[in-house]
Specification:
Radius of gyration: 21 Å
Strand content: 25-35%
Helix content: 25-40%
Strand order of the largest sheet: 6-9-7-8-10
Number of domains: 2
Order of helices and strands: EHEHEHEEHEEEHEHHHHEEHEEEEEEH
Shape: globular
Largest sheet: 5 strands, mixed, barrel
CATH topology of the largest domain: Spore Coat Polysaccharide Biosynthesis Protein SpsA, Chain A
Structural class: alpha/beta
């Protein structure tokens, strides 16, 4: 049963540059069928079905992308699309949404989610959110979900866990000792071996009062201009001047009362093309094909291919490549160089912005 006090805030303003050329300014990663037949945004909202009614889902995005949101979510009330005049990282995004929820339902518990993660099974995810909401209601705490690490990842932030605070159903709520930025491999191995660290999933739960109080204490330069502007046209003028800070850095690293729920379900932030096999699967030759297109492989193995429905990519005698066909651009690179896609995007910004 959907819980009336629960509201969801879906952050959908990212540019998704690591997924170029499929991800473009007009249609970034969260609007693509990266891990299935529907957009990542639509899958994120569908994952909440039965827990949060659609009329209590807010999607924060840019003005340019707002029509895309309603294309992906045609039943979402248009007033539930909150537009950021410019992107200023997640702290202003969270503050903008928190003030809107306060106007509509001041006693609400907010679930704050990125639009571009792959999480399964959905039932386990909803159960964890219910437990996190119970922890947020227990006392004014900022609650986050932490993924139990399965390998020494260097691309994620970590959460150092303290003692148990409470238990909600099948979930323990632990004290957050500290947040740790992305480590090098040696430290990541130490974290994994200790058993005291979790990956920071970037999924948060808190009451409206708790997050606004924390923003007021730790990030007044973010909150106060937004409070003063309200819904007025002044938002366009003040938003570009807000500090461009992640909510973790602006608030969570400084707050006194923080809880984390360790989570075991499948989670992937799909951070680059090489993440696709983990969420889309592989064939008998360890090739991964996604996006709806067809892959024809002859003596080819370990490749990641993305192409739109109706397209064909043929690979002959190659291995460990990323091949992406999208519109007027094609990307080909070794898998171990996939992170350098951002370098291509940087060059295009100066040389050929029409391809972005």
């Amino acid at each position: 049963m959907a819980q009336e006090e629960l509201w969801a805030v879906v952050m959908a303003g990212g540019s998704g540059t690591r997924f170029w050329p499929a991800s473009r300014r007009a249609r970034p990663k969260q609007f693509l069928p990266i891990a299935g037949s529907e957009s990542m945004l639509a899958a994120t909202v569908a994952r909440l079905e039965g827990l949060v009614a659609l009329e209590r889902v807010l999607v924060v995005t840019s003005g340019e992308l707002a029509p895309r949101v309603l294309e992906c979510l045609p039943e979402l009330p248009p007033d539930n699309v909150l537009v950021e005049p410019v992107g200023r990282n997640t702290a202003p995004c969270v503050a903008l949404a928190a003030l809107e929820v306060e106007r509509r339902a001041p006693d609400a518990v907010q679930l704050v989610l990125p639009a571009d993660h792959v999480i399964e099974p959905a039932e386990a995810f909803r159960a964890s959110l219910e437990a996190a909401a119970a922890e947020a209601r227990r006392e004014p705490r900022l609650v986050t979900l932490g993924i139990r690490p399965t390998f020494p990842a260097t691309g994620y932030g970590y959460i150092a866990c303290g003692g148990e605070l409470a238990r909600h159903g099948d979930f323990d709520a632990l004290e957050v000792e500290r947040f740790v930025e992305k480590p090098d491999e040696a430290r990541a191995r130490e974290f994994l071996a200790s058993g005291d660290f979790l990956w920071n999933a970037g999924i948060f739960v808190w009451t409206t009062d708790a997050i606004l109080a924390a923003l007021r204490e730790h990030a007044p330069a973010v909150l106060e201009p937004l409070e003063a502007a309200g819904r007025s046209t002044e938002l366009d003028a003040i938003y570009p001047e807000l500090p461009a800070l992640p909510i973790d850095v602006a608030v969570l690293e400084r707050a006194a009362k923080r809880s984390v729920l360790p989570i075991d379900f499948g989670w992937n932030d799909v951070g680059s093309w090489t993440s696709l096999p983990e969420v889309a699967g592989v064939d008998g030759e360890a090739n991964c094909s996604a996006g709806g297109g067809r892959l024809l492989a002859e003596g080819a193995s370990g490749n990641v291919v993305y192409g739109p429905e109706g397209s064909l990519v043929a690979l002959v005698g190659v291995k460990d490549l990323v091949v992406v066909r999208s519109g007027d651009a094609v990307l080909v690179c070794p898998k171990d160089q996939a992170q350098r896609v951002k370098d291509v995007v940087q060059r295009l910004e100066g040389e050929s912005p029409d391809f972005l």
